[in-house]
Every structure is written in C-alpha cells, then in structure tokens.
Amino acid sequence: MEFQDVVRKRKMVRTFEDKPIDPAVLDRIVTNAQRAPSAGFSQGWAFLVLNGKDETERYWNTTMSTERRTEFGWPGMFNAAALVVCLSNKSAYLARYSLPDKGWIDRDEKRWPVPYWDIDVGMAALLILQTAVDAGLGAVFFGIFDQAGFRKAFGVPDEYTAVGTVAIGHKAPTDRPSPSLRVVGKRPASEVVHRGRW
Q1: Does an H or E element contain 162, and which?
Q2: Is it the case that residue 105 has pLDDT exceeding 90?
Q3: Neighbouring C-beta atoms of residue 175, cutoff 10 Å
Q4: Range 90-101 average pLDDT
Q5: Is the confidence at residue 5, as pLDDT, over 80?
Q6: Residue 160, φ and ψ in degrees, nearest 5
Q7: CA–CA separation, 59 and 80 (whole Å)
Q8: Beta bridge pairs of residue 84
Q9: In terms of Cα–Cα distance, which of 96, 91, 83 is closest to 55?
Q10: pTM for the full predicted model
C-alpha cells in the first residue's frame, strides 16, 4: 500500500471479526514499532504482545469489570485477535542522558521540557496503527487506567508505565465510529496549521 493511502485510511477501528491474524504480520507490526524515533536513542520502551483469546481475555478481565464490559458500547472490540500494550520507561531516558556524551549527571527529570519517554512510545504506537492498516487490518489505541492491577496481572516491572494499548484484528463489515467524530468533527487546517508565525 502506498504511504499516503496508509495515512488516509488510518482510523480507530473498534469492531473486529473473531478470527486470528498471521503471526508473521504481528511480528512485522511489533518490529516496525521499534523503528520509532527515540530521544538519545534511549529506546525506553517495551511492548507486551498478547495474541489469541487466552491472552487477550486475561487482559480484558484485568482491565475491565464484567459489568463495565456488558455496558461497553463496542463489544466487538473484545474480538481483537491481538493486543499490544505500549510501555515507557522513564529511568532509561534519565540513565541515557547521564552518560558522558549527554552529560546530565544528576538525572534530574526537570531538565526535560516534556516527557519524551511517553512521546516516543506514542510514536511507536502510531507505527503499530499504520502497519496494521498496511497489512489490511484494523486497530484502535486506548488507555489503561488501572496501572497497578495491570502490572500485577502481567508481571510488569514498576519502572514501566503503560501509555496505552493497541487492539489489532480483522475489521468487521460494520463498525460504529466514536460519537466524538460527529460531536467535535475534524478541525480544518486553517485552525491548526500556522505558517511563519501564529
């Protein structure tokens, strides 16, 4: 698929068919995530790949109560063949920038104007979304609100923060888009692109 087609076709898909995806495609998706830019080449990311019903069901049971799942507006999301949890590790960045070529020996987090550890993981998540589109699949990115429960259930070390999860699978023939699209709509370029000055 041409790159412009990937960008144009990328949207959050929330309804999946209940069928597996090719393991080689999943490997390509995760490999591409590791091609994301990384401040100082810190690579302070990790990806927890959950493939197949047994693994994805454990995730859903950990992150959503049964009551919440029955009330959830997109039950077809639970059919996603795979989930990739995207995690950041702030300490990897602080350690990297304390090395001689960077010279911030004190590892003070205040030196960072924004949390690049999370930004870099966000860029990796976008590569996951785009690679899924390129493979003819659908995907959606969403947050994890119970970090402690998630860490405990999957043995994730404390220094990692789950920035979000990408659900990946075969798109169902019909998918109900988020109502936000209708309520807010897409902002025109004239409101968001400023050339030369604000």
Answers
A1: strand 161-169
A2: no
A3: 17
A4: 91
A5: yes
A6: -100, 140
A7: 12
A8: 49, 166
A9: 83
A10: 0.92
d(CA 111, CA 74) in angstroms, rounded, equals 41
Given a contact cutoff of 8 angstroms between Cβ atoms, the answer to whether 50 and 26 are in contact is no
Architecture in CATH for domain 3-192:
3-Layer(aba) Sandwich (3.40)
| Residue 130, φ and ψ in degrees, nearest 5 | -70, -40
Name 45's Cβ contacts closer than 8 Å, sequence gap at least 6. 33, 34, 36, 38, 86, 87, 88, 89, 117, 120, 121, 124
Residue with tokens 């919440």: 68
Please name which of 122, 117, 120 lies closest in space to residue 166, comparing C-alpha atoms.
122
Q: What is the mean pLDDT of residues 124-151?
A: 95
Residue 91's pLDDT is 93
How much is the average pLDDT of 56-66? 92
Q: Does residue 56 register a pLDDT over 80? A: yes
Q: Which of 55, 54, 56, 48 is nearest to 80 (CA)?
A: 56
What does each C-alpha distance from 187 to 34, 177, 181, 191, 194 come to in angstroms? 30, 17, 10, 7, 13
* E strand or H helix that includes residue 117: helix 116-134
| Residue ranges of domains in the chain | 3-192
Alpha helices, H only, 51-99:
53-63, 66-71, 90-96
DSSP string, 122-154: HHHHHHHHHHHHHTT-EEEEE--S-HHHHHHHH
